[in-house]
Amino acid sequence: MTSADTAETIVKARRAAIGPATAVALGLIALLIVWLAVNFEKSPALFVKAFLIGITNGSVYALVALGYTLVYGILELINFAHGDVFMLGGMMSATFLVSIFHLGSDPSAVYLWPALFASLAISIVFCGVLNASIERIAYRPLRKAPRLAPLITAIAMSFILQNVAIAWKGPNYISLPINILPHGVVFSIGRNTYTWDALIVVLLTVPVLVALVWLVQYTKRGKAMRATAQDREAAAMMGIDVNRTISFTFLIAGGLAGAAGLIYAIYFTSIRFDQGFQLGLFAFTAAVLGGIGNLPGAVLGALFIGLVQSFNNTLGWHAPGSDWTQSIVFSILILILVFRPEGILGERTPEGG
Questions:
Q1: What single DSSP character describes residue 340?
Q2: Do 310 and 168 fall within a single domain?
Q3: What pLDDT is recorded for position 8?
Q4: Paired residues of 175 in beta bridges
C-alpha cells in the first residue's frame, strides 16, 4: 500500500467517525457551552454561586461514585445497594451526633471536631462491615451464576436496606440542627460568599480521596485489587487470595459510603430512607460518565454531575429547574452509554471492547 493510499484511508476513517451521532453530540456540547456563557454574562455572581455549590455537592457524590467504580472494576457488578449503604451511614451518623454526642446549633470547635471524627470513624466501620457482609452473603454464592442473577440480587438488597431503615427510623426525615457546622464566611467573590460548612465538606472529602488513590496505587493490597480486576484466574494463580481481595474491596467501598453518609448528613442536615437510592443513581451516572473502573474518572464525573445539578437548580436564564434535574442527569447517562460508553477518560470495560 502506498503512502497516498494510507492517507486516503485515514481521511475516510475520520469522515466515518464524524457521523450523525457524533455531530449530534458535538451540537449538544456546543449548546451547553453557549447556555453557560449567556448565563455567566447575564449574572456572573449567580453563576459563581452555582459553581461553588456544584463543587461541594460533587465532592459528596465522588465518595459514593468511587464505591461503585471499585466494585465494578473487580466484579463487573453494579451494586445498586451501595447507595442504601450510604443512606444507613448517614442515619447512623445523625443518630450518634444528636443522641450520643448531643450536638446542638453552633457547637464549640473543641466539642464539634472530636464528635465529627468519632462519628466518621463509626460510620466508616459500620458501612464497611455491612457492605462486606452483603458481598459474603448475597453476591459471593452467585459469582459463577449468569450476570442477571447478581444484578437482581443487588436491587433486592437495595429494597431490603430501605425497609431496614424504615423499621429503624420510620419513613420521615431524620433531621440534624441546621447550624451544626459553622456558617462563617471563608471568602467572597462579588456578592457571593463561600462559607465554612461548604469548605468543611471539601476538607473532609479530599483526604479520603487521596488516601484511596494511595491505597490502590501504592500498597500491596491495592496491587492485589488491580490484579484481581484485570484477571481473577491469573491473580489466583499468582497466589492472591481473590475472595479476600474482593471482600476487602467491598469493605473499602462501604467505608467510602459511610464517610459520604456523615458528610451528607451534616451538610444537608436531613436524610431519609429513599435518599440513598436517588443519590446512588446520581453517583452511578457519575462513575459511568468519568469511566467506570477509573478512580480519577469517577471523581471527575461526580464533579460534573454536581455542577450540572447546581447550574440547573440555580441559574435563571432558560434553566429547566429542579423538577427536571433527575431527567437531565439520566439523559446524560443515556447519551454517554450511546456515544462514549467507556466514559470521559476512556477506561475500557470488558463490555466496551
A1: -
A2: no
A3: 54
A4: 270
